[in-house]
Design a protein that fits this description.
Elements lengths: L16 H17 L14 E6 L5 H12 L3 E6 L11 H9 L5 E6 L4 H8 L3 E7 L5 H15 L6 E5 L6 H12 L3 E5 L15 E3 L2 H7 L2 E4 L15 H8 L3 H7 L4 E3 L12 H4 L6 H20 L4
Parallel strand pairs: 1-2, 1-3, 3-4, 5-6, 5-8, 6-7, 8-9
Helix pairs in contact: 1-11, 2-11, 5-6, 5-11
């Protein structure tokens, strides 16, 4: 039986091509399960999973929880608001108190980069990184790539433009790592203030003109402006950002080409993307949400195979 090489999923860097193929092939099988009248299998009925979220989340948390329920796992949900963390309890003490409840897998989201790695270094349970600061978001990158592959048949040599707030985005970084591994050509596009200075060292193209980026691309993965992570102003106003970098139907008509539109959510409609684009036939945003459940089912199942 094929297994992942590591008991944790902390980032894309740690995955090789065989593991990525294994995750995608396993997701294919679970996606078929999700089309059945009874959308549940007993694969993880012996496994307890804790969703430990120190940062707000809607899509990711619900997607993991639904994946766990579809696999028949026992689930513990933890949110830092209203917990002993607010009373001064340390991160590690909080984690150890959760683990003593015989948890096998921990899904961790935290606002600080490196927290999932720190926890993995100090516990016996498997750890899944559900997003750590501006560092990585591996499951989002996997579901994004899976969605592109499903739509285009393959990813090798496809042109993917990642557009928006690159400097604050863990989604962008994980996508770049994964898409490069899969042979795609990657471009980032946005205001100069929102693109890391040395990101071209990752062997990607940097573009500051949105029309040129869309004319080049087969797929546009549009990111939201993360105002909650911005301690200084990176551009004059949201209106000006929308004017120069927002994607709308008028812009796409001027390009006149087939272009797939993606967005990891949440969407700031009317800022980085208009409703007529987000809800159009070229958009695969809802496919990403659907595929997120299958990908997370695959990851949790494969990690469970390494549990003794």
């Amino acid at each position: 039986m094929n297994l992942l090489n590591n008991k944790h999923l902390l980032g894309i860097k740690n995955l090789d091509l065989n593991e990525i193929d294994l995750i995608f092939n396993t997701a294919d099988r679970f996606k078929e399960v999700l089309t059945r009248p009874i959308k549940k299998v007993p694969s993880l009925r012996h496994i307890t999973i804790a969703n430990v979220f120190f940062e707000n989340s809607t899509r990711t948390k619900l997607s993991f929880e639904l994946a766990e329920k579809r696999l028949s796992a026992e689930i513990l949900n933890f949110s830092s608001s209203g917990s002993s963390v607010k009373k001064g309890e340390s991160l590690l003490d909080t984690i150890k108190n959760i683990l003593v409840m015989k948890v096998d897998i921990m899904v961790i989201r935290h606002s600080s980069p490196g927290v999932p790695q720190f926890i993995a270094n100090n516990v016996d349970a498997s750890v899944v990184n559900a997003g750590d600061g501006s560092h990585e978001h591996p499951t989002q990158a996997l579901l994004d790539a899976y969605s592109i592959k499903e739509k285009l048949g393959n990813i090798n040599n496809k042109k993917i433009a990642i557009i928006g707030d690159i400097i604050h985005s863990r989604v962008a970084i994980s996508n770049i790592f994964l898409l490069k591994k899969l042979g795609a050509k990657v471009m980032v596009c946005g205001p100069k203030t929102l693109i890391p200075k040395h990101i071209s060292d990752l062997d990607i193209i940097v573009e500051n003109n949105i029309k040129k980026a869309l004319e080049w691309a087969d797929v546009a993965n549009v990111l939201r402006i993360q105002l909650e992570r911005q301690e200084v102003k990176y551009f004059p106003s949201l209106r000006e950002y929308s004017l120069y970098f927002g994607i709308n139907n008028k812009l796409l008509k001027s390009i006149n080409k087939d272009l797939i539109i993606m967005h990891p959510g949440p969407i700031n409609r009317g800022i980085e993307i208009s409703s007529d684009v987000a809800d159009s036939s070229r958009s695969i945003i809802l496919n990403q949400v659907e595929n997120g459940v299958a990908i997370r089912m695959a990851i949790l199942y494969l990690l469970s195979l390494n549990i003794k």
